[in-house]
Amino acid sequence: MNAIVFLGIQGSGKGTQAKLLSELIGYRHINIGELLRAQIQKGSDTGKQVDKITTRGELVSDELVIDMIGAETSQEKKGIIFDGFPRTLAQAVVLLEKYHLLRVYYLDLPEQEAVKRLSARRTCRVCGENYNLLTHPPRSPALCDICPGHLCRRPDDKPIAIRKRIAEFYRQTHNLKDLFEEKNLLLTVSASGGIKEIAETIKRDIQIHLPR
What we know:
By secondary structure, the protein is α/β, with parallel strands linked by helices. It has helices at about 15-25, 30-40, 45-55, 60-75, 90-100, 110-120, 160-175, 175-180, 195-210; strands spanning about 1-10, 30, 80-85, 100-110, 120-125, 130, 150, 185-190. A hairpin with a 5-residue loop joins strand 5 and strand 6 (about 130).
């Protein structure tokens, strides 16, 4: 199965760009954070474990993430766009073994800008739509544009949890950039630009790498 990966520090816009690319090429967008939050909402034993881990700003175990990915992608035919996976070397090894990796986009963003963006993120309590008060604001600061739901800040977007997640990114995930670069799969894109500008850069590049 074909796969495309978005890597980058939290707040770099991986989810936004992955969603736009999904709409463009018809590959399924899988956001690992959303899969984990779905488990939390179900109130399952896995969800309770995940809730404690993510609230502390830590990463969920490789085994749990890999199992969830396998279950989610078993029926896919055309291709997958991964957002938030892989995060560790062990996850990257599984990715390379089980998928035909077409391209990895590394969205490069300074740490201070990432903290600023994450602190401004808001999520609808009802439908789950995501906003950012800086880059993608709702029409009303407290209400969702899509439904009457109120917006809230996720527990893992509080300053202490943000700093821990960023530290984990540099400790485990950042090194994957070198791995994919060595395999000529990586394109680094500045995440400081506008959403449309970044999307155009990715659009031009992926057209070269998609199967004919």
